Amino acid sequence: MSKTIIMLWIALASLWACQQNSAPATTPIPVLRAQTNSKLKSKAYAAANDSIRERRYSLQERELEYIMEMWPGQYDNVEQLDFDMYVGKSSSELGQHLRVHHHASRLSQSAMGEYVIYIEEMINEDPNDIRRQSLYVLTPSDTSKFIQLSVFHFKKLMPLLSVGKTIDHLNDLTESSPRLEPGCDMVLEREGMAFRAVAVDKFCQTDDADASKSIDYQFRIAKDEYWFEEIIYDRELKTRLPDKLQQSAYQLERARCFVCMIDFPKEDGGRPVVTHHYVDIHDQGGAFEFEYRDGRTMVLGMRNTWSFGMQRETFVIFIQEGSQSGPTLIYSWGNPGADRIGFNPGWIRVQCDLDTAENRKLQHGLRPDS
Fold it and tell me: What is the pLDDT of residue 267?
């Protein structure tokens, strides 16, 4: 009997302890949940819900986030020049395009707003020939499905990204900066999987070469492409000039950046085990000129080019003698999208890796005889 009483006492003690552990503390942790009784929604409850509520983005804000992720990078139309020659456009009079290299970079802390893109365009691989250098301030529209694009051109054109300089100092510029002048306002709208920007007033920009004409500048951004065109209008008649007087759109493809190492032999007939150059280059017609051991000028080139024989794109690197129009001494090819390519014919060794911090460290850490 006494044993039964003891067991009952232990059970009651355990139950009491369990109830104490499960009881709420003196200052309970608030649980945010739906309540049907509005009187229970205290100010503290509302404030807590506001602090954790996710920001609601409009459709145009989401589009802008995508554009700012997709657009930045380098683009080049070197492939378009090859096709120009193929169809007989061998000069500007016959419709040949200029070589254009386009840089686009987001200013992450710009005084001009949250969505600001810096662009710089170099002509014919000459950093002293910058044709377009601008800031684009993008703003979502609350009243339309367009994204408003305010344009500010630099008054004095100077290469920055084209010569490897940083652009952090541009964050301090404002709309009233003496270095800038306003351009033609544009609107940006989705066009399938791309976005097209057009001027609000197509007669806004006067042709510098002929004041009786205006230039309607438009551009198109896609995942791996940047196209632009300059449509010419008669300012007095307000009409578009015939197609034969227009130039077709510039078609630039996204460039991927690589780091390369170029090794020479120590002596004639030896293995190429001494690194003479670490090179930054891109796969849309990037080139690096150097002098070989025997004094000859050589050029390392890189292309992601169209193969007419195989009817597909091919990733190639090559060395030419003398200049970019000189004879090809050696070349190597791979699949488009490959992140490494190289060759070693014995008298020179070239290794190119996709430009990442890890690959840069890898190249500089390689043994000379690896």
Answer: 78
> Could you tell me the maximum CA-CA distance found in the chain, to the nearest angstrom?
117
The letter for the amino acid at 117 is I
* Tokens, residue 250: 């510039």
Written as six digits, the tokens of 29 are: 């942790």
Q: What is the pLDDT of residue 312?
A: 87
| Rounded mean pLDDT for each run of 10 residues along the chain, 370 residues in total | 45 44 42 42 52 66 93 97 93 93 97 97 96 96 86 97 96 97 96 95 92 95 96 94 93 97 86 90 96 95 88 93 95 93 94 95 75
Strand partners, 152: 135, 182
Task: Return the ∠ at Cα 118 (arms to 147 and 180), rounded to 5°.
Answer: 95
Token pair recorded at residue 105? 């970079």
Name every residue whose Cβ is closer than 8 Å to that of residue 348 and which is 6 or more positions away in sequence.
262, 263, 264, 272, 292, 319, 330
292: left (phi over 0), alpha (psi -120 to 50) or beta: beta
Which of 133, 182, 175 lies closest to 154 in space, CA to CA? Answer: 133
Q: Which three-class secondary structure string do you get for 261-282? A: EEEEECCCCCCEEEEEEEEEEE
Report the candidate in 243, 222, 223 with the shortest Cα–Cα distance to residue 232.
Answer: 243
Q: Is 137 helix (H, G, I), strand (E, B) or coil?
A: strand
Side chain identity at 14, as an amino acid letter?
S
Rounded CA separation 127/103 (Å): 12
Q: Is the dihedral of CA 187, 195, 198, 251 positive or negative?
A: positive
Query: Is residue 98 classed as helix, strand or coil in its secondary structure?
Result: coil
Q: How many residues does the chain have?
A: 370
**pLDDT for 24:** 42
Three-state SS for 234?
A: strand
Distance in angstroms (rounded) separating the CA atoms of residues 176 and 134: 14
